[in-house]
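Problem 12. The chain below contains 187 residues. Write out its predicted structure in token notation.
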Amino acid sequence: MTRTGALEVPVEQQEKAHISNYSIEERDRSRGSVFRQFLSFCLVGGLNTTIDLLVLNGLLWLWPTQNTVLLLACNSLAYAAGATNSFFWNKYWTFRSRQHTTYSELMRFALTTLCGLVINNVLLWIASELLHPTMINATLWANASKALAIGGTFMISFLGMRLWVFVRHPLRENVARRQDQPVYRHR
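Solution.
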């Protein structure tokens, strides 16, 4: 039993009340948190896209092509460069993870990124095949195809990162953080 103010509350009830109160508070806070995460993800995504496009255009400048297979190879390298940037910014800024990077987290990120890359390449291939006959300039063709592919992978990437890669366990973190705080407060 623990004495909190004028009440004696059994530890089991404290734990249940703490979990219950925490869940309600967390749910109310999470609505704003998801919106903030989405906006942060958009900013990081903008930076990733800039890196992706710079690397892609740099590779296409070195090896100009109208070959879809070479375009997909260049796209894969460019996507990997943007994804590397994505890991650090999304982990520490967007999703505010303070945990050490674990092997399982890296594997989840790699699988999510690989799925994003495959989807991006499929969409890029479709777009490039559709746009190829209409575009005279190879750089314009590649960038227009890439823009369509980026639009198709954006939400898949956000959901994968938020719901699987950088999943927080707020209940465990909160219980560890608030062990010494009273469960019931006088108002």
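Discussion. Residues 17-22, 175-186 have pLDDT under 50 and may be disordered. Students who got a different answer should revisit the alignment rule from Section 12.3.
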